[in-house]
Amino acid sequence: MTRPGSVAHVLWSGGVGGIERVVHDLAFEQMRQGLEVSVIFGQLGGPFGAAMRANGTRVVDLGLRSGYDLRPAVIRRGLAAVKDAEVLHLHGFNLPFAAIAWKARGDTVFTEHGAFGLGRRLGIAGVLKRRVQRTFLTGVAKVVVANSNHTADRLAALYSIDRNRITVVHNGFDGSSAFEPAEYSHVGLIVAFVGRLVRFKRVDLLLRAVAELPQGHDVRVVVAGDGPLRARLISLVESLQLGGSVTFAGFRNDIGEVLSIADVLVQPSAQEPFGLAVLEAAAYGALPIVFADSGGALEVLPPDGLVVEGVDELTRALAGLEGSDALSHAARCRRATWARTNFSIGEVARKYSRLYRTASGKPGS
């Protein structure tokens, strides 16, 4: 790895997910800041892979069959893809990525985004993979990063590594475009959920809270995202008799359009590694509400964001927000300014540049 000012990001796919969105924004910002950037995918397919290719990022598809695909041809392809990069930046762990990093013997930065798969039963292969990952974190990765303190604590505990070795770099977003939060009409309430429709996101809790609202409240819900629980959640809407109050918008590339019309974002997730949707909602002026066990999402909640303990408390919070000052234009502008000031993707890219210099042993601030 000889070319200065270059980085190769490595991640599993270009599909729908928070990791893919973060890497997309980070790679584009790093290019704007003068780095030579390439992105290596285990499996390229998906909207963010296509978007990265469209914005001029060099993209490589390893064509992995699985996270255990160690075919020599795959490893050679990976080594050829990263040979000119000064830094290899892994986003998540699997065996082929570890093999490529080990054989490349360069400056490796590893970011844990919180995809631990906790609660799943580990077979023999899973146990061995976890042992290999601990060896990788302690012996191959020169810098280990987590996207939140919550993620860092879990990473240190799970792999028995020194918590002080883990640097926290909160995710950011591209807030460079001019934006003026919308005025609140003080008529009804538009509530958004943004994310994958999977079990730990607990979208059902939001739907049940809305169903418990007393008559007379005009609350509409927009669910932006897709996933394996979509059909089950649609059935739940029917059983709760929410009728036309809930819209399933599916996966959206234009998530800003959804958030710009939302008054509130509810993120019911349990143990969320980061909570990018919470941050983006605040950037568009919406008021985020999270649950007390939301993990990393609590770290990016704006000063006036709300934390609830359960469904009943969420119902009361939604009922009290209609027409309140928390949704005023002034409040929306304060939240947007806070998010865009504290979590810009430009600052995230600069933090990683400093960590790349740490990994390579080069001085610089």
What would you say this structure looks like, in words?
The chain is an alpha/beta fold and 365 residues long. It has two domains: 6-174 and 344-360, Rossmann fold (3-Layer(aba) Sandwich); 189-342, Rossmann fold, CATH 3.40.50. The chain is built from 13 helices and 13 strands. It has helices spanning 18-32, 47-54, 72-82, 95-104, 124-139, 149-159, 203-211, 230-239, 255-261, 276-283, 311-321, 329-342, 345-360, and strands at 6-13, 36-43, 58-61, 87-91, 107-112, 143-146, 166-168, 189-194, 219-224, 246-250, 264-267, 287-291, 306-308. The strands form two sheets. The protein has a seven-stranded parallel beta sheet, with helices on both faces. Helix 3 crosses helix 4 and helix 10 packs across helix 12 (329-342).
